[in-house]
Every structure is written in structure tokens, then in C-alpha cells.
Design goal:
Its cofactor is Zn(2+). The protein is α+β, with helices and mostly antiparallel strands and 400 residues long. Helices cover 28% and strands 23% of the residues. A four-stranded mixed beta sheet has the order 10-11-15-14. It has a three-stranded mixed beta sheet with strand order 1-9-8.
């Protein structure tokens, strides 16, 4: 995309957010629109495919703090992006007439600062505009700069055991990618783009309007610096087409629910030879029917009988891949947590979690006559024992 097209687009409107939206709001809006318009969810719908490309492009700019800042500053400076409509003062008035210190856009673009006094003047704007229009801070035209590809985000869902131990998964994506037919240069196979004769490959042309002198993207090549005479039939000269590809994604052991995994260079391809964006895989972990997780530790609630806590016992506890025997000391309180070392989550950094076993007494809904008689006999035996002395003392003080 040319610089003029970039400035003229309203990326905030594409995502349906305000210009002061937070990064979380931008991300939430992008994920919603990307899911709604994904080619897999809308097969044969060209409008949804175009919308998917548009929101991906908008997110690629607005999700990057530096790109967003340049975009906001450029739109603030240029308005709609059309040349000649910038709203700067005219040639009249002090300093406006030729030969009386007339105003030259070259000063803003970083061309006149050094000559005026050795300083850079509005060097920040010069650098910013250089990034947008393929010019250096000193104002010398260069070959049109490429644009880094947008980052892409997708979601995968895995089982609890896969999150703990790690897994290798195939990931099928339908997303913009470098056109396989033309290799990304936009020209029909067997042909090559040619250097634009108007701008000599710079992507920029100089223009004067009264006392003003400025540069703008070349209209013949739309700021690309090259012209494609015979466009690729697959991508129609864009160099990018939507295609389905399968990647192998390695999920590291110990990944958390909602964690993102970055695959460098697997996002949208860059333009003009620039690097591709990154692919972010957001992992969603299905809950386990028995185990839970606390950091690197696995957790489990183990039902036990009252007698097992009072008299002590040895219980068998499952782990994710085997079982262990656990000794319960006599007189153990209900709800006590016992630790089994080294049976938790092992991460790549060498850290090793434990298995935390919470003992939970199970109260039977019904008991047979023999069990009832034994319980009544037990109740008579411990009748003089007060299990709640503090509460009894408080009630006594209140005259209960």
C-alpha cells in the first residue's frame, strides 16, 4: 500500500473503536471481527474476505505503539491525506512572500534545518515522515521502503494433560500470505516489475504550490517505486493472496490457559521486501475432571472416610500418568493439604512442581443399622469431649 493510501485510511473505523481506544479495546475489537469474517467461517464470501484483510491491516498498525504514533501524527498533520489541503498559512503576511523568508515544507521534512543553522529543526517530523514516505531524515529520496507484515493471532484448544506435558500440534490457517504464483512481487510469472520512470524508483515526486514545496507519493506507481505491466493472475499485482497453510506448533510444557505463543515471521508477509509479521497462538486449556493447577503445582481433592483421618491410613492417590501411596497420620484434620514432591508440572527452565492433595471427609447420606449402632456407641464414648470449647465458653458468658 502506498503512503497516500495508508494515511487516507481510517483504521479506527475499520475496527469500530475510537481514536483514544486502549490496546485491550483494540485487541478485543480485532479478535471479534477476525472471527466473524475469517475465510474459514465464510467460504466463498469475497466481502468477508476483504473485511478480514482490512481489519488485519488495521490491527497490524494500531497494535504497534510506534506505528500507531506515526499514523496518528501523520493523519493529524495531513488531514485526509490529499495534497494541497494541509491547512497551513498561505504565502501572504510576514514571511509569506517569496524572497521574504517564505515557508518551505522542506523545513518540516528535515531538508532545510541543517542549512539554516546546523540544527535539525523539526527533525522529529522529518524522521516520522521519512518512515511513512520512504525518505531519510536528511530529505534524500531513497527506494520506496517496504512495510513490515501485520501480526496475526489465532486460537487453539488443548487438553489439560497436553498443557502440563507439552504437545506438538498441526495448525491450519487461512490468512494473507505471500503469493505463491508470483513469489510476492505482483508480476505474472516470467515477467518482472520495472522501475517507475516518473520517480526513478524513489516512490516520491517533488511538487510546488505557490510558496510551498513538498514531496508526495508518486501517482504513477502509487508510491511503490515500481510499475507492474502484467499483473499476476492470482494476486492481481498485490503480491499477497489468502491461502490455507498448515504449520506445526510446539506447545511448551507447563503452558498456562490464555497464554500466547509467538512464532516469529509466520504472520502476514511484508511488502516491498520487508520482513513478515509474527503469528501469535493463544492457547485455551480444557479443564480436567479431577486435577486442578496452582502455578507449577497440580491439585487434587481426595475423598476420605472419617476413620481414615482419626486412626491414620495409607491412601492411593492418582497422578497424571501413574499413582502414588500417601501416608495419612492419625488425627489428621479434615481439609489438610498433603504434598507429594516432584509430581507436579516440570517446565523447560528446570522448575518442578508438586502434587497438592486436599483431604476431604465424605459424609454418607445413609448408613445401615450396624454402622448406625457403631456410631451411636462412639458418640456415647466421646460424649464428655467438647469439640468446640471456645464457642462453649462464649455461650456460657452470654448466659446461654
Amino acid at each position: 500500500m502506498s503512503a497516500r493510501e495508508w494515511i487516507g485510511k481510517d483504521f479506527y473505523r475499520e475496527l469500530g473503536v475510537s481514536s483514544d481506544a486502549s490496546q485491550d479495546e483494540i485487541k478485543k475489537a480485532y479478535r471479534k471481527l477476525a472471527r466473524e469474517n475469517h475465510p474459514d467461517a465464510n467460504p466463498g464470501n469475497p466481502e468477508a474476505e476483504q473485511k478480514f484483510k482490512a481489519v488485519s491491516e488495521a490491527y497490524g498498525v494500531l497494535s504497534d505503539a510506534d506505528k500507531r504514533k506515526e499514523y496518528d501524527e501523520a493523519r493529524s498533520l495531513f488531514g485526509s491525506g490529499s495534497p494541497g489541503g494541509f491547512g497551513f498559512p498561505g504565502a501572504g503576511g510576514p514571511g509569506g512572500a517569496p524572497g521574504q523568508g517564505g515557508f518551505d515544507f522542506g523545513d518540516i521534512f528535515g531538508q532545510g534545518g541543517a542549512a539554516a543553522g546546523g540544527g535539525t529543526g523539526f527533525g522529529g517530523l522529518g524522521d516520522m515522515l521519512g518512515n511513512l514516505f520512504g525518505r531519510r531524515g536528511g530529505g534524500e529520496p531513497t527506494a520506496a521502503r517496504g512495510q513490515r507484515g501485520a501480526d496475526v493471532e489465532t486460537d487453539v484448544r488443548i487438553d489439560f494433560a497436553e498443557a502440563v506435558k507439552g504437545a506438538t500440534l498441526p495448525l491450519r490457517l487461512s490468512s494473507p500470505a505471500s503469493c505463491a504464483t508470483c513469489g510476492g512481487n505482483g508480476a505474472r510469472p516470467g515477467t518482472q516489475p520495472r522501475t517507475c520512470p516518473t520517480c526513478q524508483g524513489a516512490g516520491l515526486v517533488n511538487r510546488s504550490q505557490g510558496a510551498f514545496a513538498f514531496s508526495e507519493p508518486c501517482r504513477d506507481c502509487r508510491g511503490r517505486g515500481t510499475i507492474i505491466d502484467d499483473p499476476c493472475p492470482e494476486c492481481h499485482g498485490d503480491g499477497i493472496s489468502t491461502r490455507t497453510r498448515t504449520l506445526t506448533v510446539r506447545i511448551p510444557a507447563g503452558v498456562d490457559d490464555n497464554q500466547r505463543i509467538r512464532l516469529a515471521g509466520q504472520g502476514e508477509p511484508g511488502r516491498g521486501g520487508a520482513t513478515a509479521g509474527d503469528l501469535y497462538v493463544r492457547v485455551h486449556v480444557n479443564p480436567h475432571p479431577v486435577f486442578g493447577r496452582s502455578g507449577n503445582d497440580l491439585t487434587i481433592s481426595l475423598p476420605v472416610e472419617f476413620t481414615e483421618l482419626v486412626l491414620g491410613s495409607t491412601v492411593t492417590v492418582p497422578t497424571l500418568d501413574s499413582k502414588v501411596s500417601l501416608k495419612v497420620p492419625s488425627g489428621t484434620a479434615n481439609g489438610r493439604v498433603l504434598r507429594v514432591r516432584g509430581k507436579g508440572i516440570a517446565k523447560r527452565d528446570g522448575s518442578q512442581g508438586d502434587l497438592l492433595v486436599t483431604l476431604q471427609v465424605v459424609i454418607p447420606a445413609k448408613v445401615d443399622s450396624k454402622a448406625k449402632a457403631a456410631l451411636e456407641n462412639y458418640a456415647e464414648t466421646v460424649a464428655k469431649h467438647d469439640p468446640r470449647p471456645e464457642i462453649t465458653a462464649l455461650l456460657r458468658d452470654r448466659g446461654a
